[in-house]
Design goal:
It is a single chain. With about 190 residues, this protein is mainly alpha-helical. The protein has one domain. About 30% of the residues lie in helices and about 5% in strands. It is built from eight helices and four strands. Bound molecules: zinc ion (2 copies). The site of one zinc ion has 6 residues, from loops. This is Interferon-induced very large GTPase 1-like.
């Protein structure tokens, strides 16, 4: 893709986006209105809850991917670069298209394979090629690979809570690939 799909970060909270803001999203949704209750009910009906996933997965070095915010998998041992086998849709890390403000469904390994650029506080709000991410994030290894897709779990979560993420992140809902909406069973299976 040669078009410049601009992405920006709502960067006020970028540094602090972490488990805290995710949990806040879930806790807030317990309250008052019906949509929020429905949201919580959906969360409750997941066999493994997103907040548990977030907590359970934070082990090892605790660093999060600068784009999708998934935690490094390299574990607690000393490692030269932070690494993840499967990244998450970047919208979950607050990335949105610059023009449409829609949350991004692509994952980091695809984006570093593309000609797409990003900008955020770390690039001083200047466009920077994903391909050259290591100039900005030298301690991360994100290998370009178009064949890897997000996990069934995160596809399902993003599809199911698209509107809520958009609201929480002050963005527009993502254009979700239609089949992501039918992945509940696979998402649950993947957690067993
Ligand atoms: Zn990532
Ligand atoms: Zn690490």
């Amino acid at each position: 893709m040669s078009e410049k799909l601009g992405m920006e970060m709502a960067d006020k909270m970028r540094k602090s986006f972490s488990i805290k803001s995710s949990v806040k999203l879930l806790r807030q949704s317990k309250s008052q209105n019906k949509t929020q209750r429905d949201f919580q009910n959906k969360i409750d009906s997941l066999q493994t809850k997103p907040q548990d996933m977030l907590f359970n997965r934070v082990w090892g070095c605790g660093k999060q991917c600068p784009f999708c915010k998934a935690p490094c998998e390299a574990g607690g041992e000393v490692h030269a670069k932070h690494f993840l086998s499967v990244h998450r849709p970047e919208g979950l890390g607050r990335y949105r298209f610059d023009n449409s403000k829609k949350l991004v469904t692509d994952i980091c390994t695809s984006l570093v394979h593309s000609d797409i650029s990003f900008k955020c506080r770390d690039t001083k709000d200047q466009w920077h090629k994903y391909k050259e991410y290591s100039q900005i994030y030298p301690d991360w290894q994100i290998d370009p690979d178009r064949s890897i897709e997000a996990s069934a779990y995160w596809k399902y979560v993003m599809a199911e809570f698209n509107e809520q993420f958009a609201e929480e992140y002050d963005a527009k809902p993502a254009d979700i690939p239609p089949y992501w909406k039918n992945m509940k069973t696979q998402a649950e299976e993947s957690l067993k």
